[in-house]
Amino acid sequence: MTRKYVIDAVDKNLHASFSNAYEPILTVQSGDSVQCSTIDIGWGNNDKDGGRHEYSSREKEQAWGHPIIGPIGIEQTKPGLTLEVKINDIVPSWYGWNCAGGKWNWHNDQLGLVNAKQIKLDWVLDSSKMIASTSIEKQTFTVLFRPFMGVKRNAPKEAGVHSTIPPRYCGGNIDCKELV
Protein backbone atom coordinates (compact mmCIF):
# COMPACT_ATOMS: atom_id res chain seq x y z
CA MET A 1 0.00 0.00 0.00
CA THR A 2 1.43 3.37 -0.99
CA ARG A 3 1.29 6.26 1.41
CA LYS A 4 1.14 10.02 0.89
CA TYR A 5 3.12 12.41 3.09
CA VAL A 6 2.97 16.20 3.38
CA ILE A 7 6.08 18.06 4.55
CA ASP A 8 5.75 21.69 5.60
CA ALA A 9 8.44 24.32 5.19
CA VAL A 10 9.48 24.79 8.82
CA ASP A 11 12.96 25.28 10.27
CA LYS A 12 13.28 21.65 11.45
CA ASN A 13 12.79 20.44 7.82
CA LEU A 14 15.16 22.91 6.11
CA HIS A 15 18.87 22.87 5.42
CA ALA A 16 21.24 24.82 3.15
CA SER A 17 23.85 22.25 2.16
CA PHE A 18 24.25 18.57 1.31
CA SER A 19 25.80 15.86 3.45
CA ASN A 20 25.39 12.11 3.62
CA ALA A 21 25.54 12.47 7.42
CA TYR A 22 22.26 14.45 7.68
CA GLU A 23 19.48 12.48 9.29
CA PRO A 24 16.33 12.08 7.15
CA ILE A 25 13.29 14.06 8.22
CA LEU A 26 11.15 11.27 6.76
CA THR A 27 11.74 7.75 5.45
CA VAL A 28 9.40 6.40 2.78
CA GLN A 29 8.93 3.19 0.84
CA SER A 30 9.23 2.83 -2.91
CA GLY A 31 6.01 4.10 -4.53
CA ASP A 32 5.08 6.48 -1.71
CA SER A 33 4.19 10.08 -2.53
CA VAL A 34 5.61 13.19 -0.84
CA GLN A 35 4.22 16.72 -1.14
CA CYS A 36 6.57 19.51 -0.02
CA SER A 37 5.99 23.18 0.65
CA THR A 38 8.94 25.36 -0.22
CA ILE A 39 10.21 28.85 0.53
CA ASP A 40 11.92 31.45 -1.61
CA ILE A 41 15.64 31.79 -2.29
CA GLY A 42 15.84 34.56 0.33
CA TRP A 43 14.83 32.08 3.05
CA GLY A 44 11.31 33.45 3.50
CA ASN A 45 7.74 33.74 2.28
CA ASN A 46 5.64 36.84 1.81
CA ASP A 47 1.99 36.96 2.83
CA LYS A 48 -0.69 38.92 1.00
CA ASP A 49 -0.90 41.48 3.85
CA GLY A 50 2.66 42.66 3.21
CA GLY A 51 4.30 40.65 5.98
CA ARG A 52 7.20 38.26 5.60
CA HIS A 53 8.08 35.08 7.47
CA GLU A 54 11.79 34.24 7.67
CA TYR A 55 13.18 30.71 8.09
CA SER A 56 16.50 29.25 9.18
CA SER A 57 18.41 26.04 8.62
CA ARG A 58 18.31 23.21 11.14
CA GLU A 59 21.98 22.51 10.34
CA LYS A 60 23.15 26.09 11.10
CA GLU A 61 25.53 26.19 8.11
CA GLN A 62 28.07 29.02 8.03
CA ALA A 63 27.89 29.56 4.24
CA TRP A 64 24.76 30.58 2.34
CA GLY A 65 22.94 27.85 0.45
CA HIS A 66 19.59 27.27 -1.23
CA PRO A 67 16.78 26.45 1.22
CA ILE A 68 16.07 22.72 0.83
CA ILE A 69 13.45 20.41 2.36
CA GLY A 70 14.79 17.07 3.55
CA PRO A 71 16.60 14.84 3.35
CA ILE A 72 14.03 12.13 2.66
CA GLY A 73 15.20 8.55 3.11
CA ILE A 74 13.92 5.63 1.06
CA GLU A 75 13.74 2.19 2.65
CA GLN A 76 15.81 -0.61 1.12
CA THR A 77 18.09 1.71 -0.87
CA LYS A 78 21.86 1.55 -0.76
CA PRO A 79 24.78 3.13 -2.59
CA GLY A 80 25.07 2.03 -6.21
CA LEU A 81 21.35 1.57 -6.84
CA THR A 82 19.56 3.75 -9.39
CA LEU A 83 16.89 5.99 -7.90
CA GLU A 84 13.87 7.16 -9.90
CA VAL A 85 11.93 10.16 -8.59
CA LYS A 86 8.81 11.31 -10.39
CA ILE A 87 7.72 14.95 -10.07
CA ASN A 88 3.92 15.02 -10.45
CA ASP A 89 3.27 18.74 -10.08
CA ILE A 90 5.09 21.99 -9.38
CA VAL A 91 2.50 24.44 -8.06
CA PRO A 92 3.74 27.99 -7.50
CA SER A 93 2.46 30.24 -4.76
CA TRP A 94 0.95 33.68 -5.38
CA TYR A 95 4.23 35.63 -5.16
CA GLY A 96 7.76 35.57 -6.53
CA TRP A 97 10.70 37.92 -6.95
CA ASN A 98 13.96 38.26 -8.80
CA CYS A 99 16.82 40.71 -8.74
CA ALA A 100 19.94 41.71 -10.63
CA GLY A 101 22.97 43.89 -9.95
CA GLY A 102 24.73 45.06 -6.83
CA LYS A 103 27.08 42.12 -6.23
CA TRP A 104 29.46 39.83 -8.05
CA ASN A 105 28.09 36.71 -9.65
CA TRP A 106 28.51 35.27 -13.11
CA HIS A 107 25.28 36.77 -14.48
CA ASN A 108 25.91 40.28 -13.15
CA ASP A 109 29.50 40.16 -14.41
CA GLN A 110 28.39 39.17 -17.93
CA LEU A 111 25.76 41.94 -17.98
CA GLY A 112 28.06 44.62 -16.52
CA LEU A 113 25.88 44.98 -13.40
CA VAL A 114 28.35 44.10 -10.63
CA ASN A 115 28.72 47.72 -9.54
CA ALA A 116 25.20 48.82 -10.48
CA LYS A 117 22.46 49.37 -7.91
CA GLN A 118 20.49 46.18 -7.29
CA ILE A 119 17.06 46.09 -8.94
CA LYS A 120 14.41 43.83 -7.42
CA LEU A 121 11.14 42.94 -9.12
CA ASP A 122 8.15 41.68 -7.11
CA TRP A 123 5.85 39.43 -9.15
CA VAL A 124 2.22 38.45 -8.53
CA LEU A 125 1.75 34.91 -9.85
CA ASP A 126 -1.45 33.40 -11.23
CA SER A 127 -0.80 29.64 -11.28
CA SER A 128 -4.11 28.86 -12.99
CA LYS A 129 -3.14 30.99 -16.03
CA MET A 130 0.65 30.61 -15.53
CA ILE A 131 1.23 34.34 -15.82
CA ALA A 132 3.26 36.69 -13.65
CA SER A 133 2.83 40.47 -13.39
CA THR A 134 5.05 43.22 -12.03
CA SER A 135 4.98 47.01 -12.12
CA ILE A 136 7.96 49.28 -12.76
CA GLU A 137 7.67 53.05 -12.80
CA LYS A 138 3.86 52.96 -13.24
CA GLN A 139 4.12 50.44 -16.08
CA THR A 140 2.84 46.86 -15.70
CA PHE A 141 4.50 43.90 -17.36
CA THR A 142 2.98 40.44 -17.67
CA VAL A 143 4.90 37.33 -18.72
CA LEU A 144 4.13 33.64 -19.09
CA PHE A 145 6.02 31.35 -16.74
CA ARG A 146 6.79 27.65 -16.44
CA PRO A 147 7.93 26.59 -12.97
CA PHE A 148 10.79 24.10 -12.89
CA MET A 149 12.95 22.23 -10.41
CA GLY A 150 15.98 24.25 -9.39
CA VAL A 151 17.79 22.15 -6.81
CA LYS A 152 17.43 18.38 -6.62
CA ARG A 153 20.00 15.84 -5.58
CA ASN A 154 21.01 12.66 -3.89
CA ALA A 155 23.42 12.80 -0.96
CA PRO A 156 27.02 12.78 -2.21
CA LYS A 157 29.14 9.74 -1.41
CA GLU A 158 31.98 11.97 -0.16
CA ALA A 159 31.98 12.87 3.53
CA GLY A 160 31.54 16.45 4.68
CA VAL A 161 29.23 19.37 4.00
CA HIS A 162 28.78 20.33 0.33
CA SER A 163 27.45 23.52 -1.28
CA THR A 164 24.05 23.55 -2.99
CA ILE A 165 25.32 25.82 -5.76
CA PRO A 166 27.30 23.73 -8.27
CA PRO A 167 25.59 20.88 -10.11
CA ARG A 168 27.57 17.63 -9.98
CA TYR A 169 27.27 13.87 -10.52
CA CYS A 170 24.61 13.50 -7.79
CA GLY A 171 22.56 16.61 -8.66
CA GLY A 172 22.58 20.07 -7.12
CA ASN A 173 21.50 23.45 -8.49
CA ILE A 174 20.46 22.22 -11.90
CA ASP A 175 18.07 25.07 -12.87
CA CYS A 176 16.95 23.10 -15.90
CA LYS A 177 13.97 24.73 -17.60
CA GLU A 178 13.10 21.39 -19.23
CA LEU A 179 12.38 19.79 -15.82
CA VAL A 180 8.84 21.17 -15.68
UniProtKB/TrEMBL annotation:
Gene3D superfamilies: Acetamidase/Formamidase-like domains (2.60.120.580)
Cross-referenced SUPFAM superfamilies: Acetamidase/Formamidase-like
Full protein name: Acetamidase
Species per Swiss-Prot/TrEMBL record: Halalkalibacter alkalisediminis
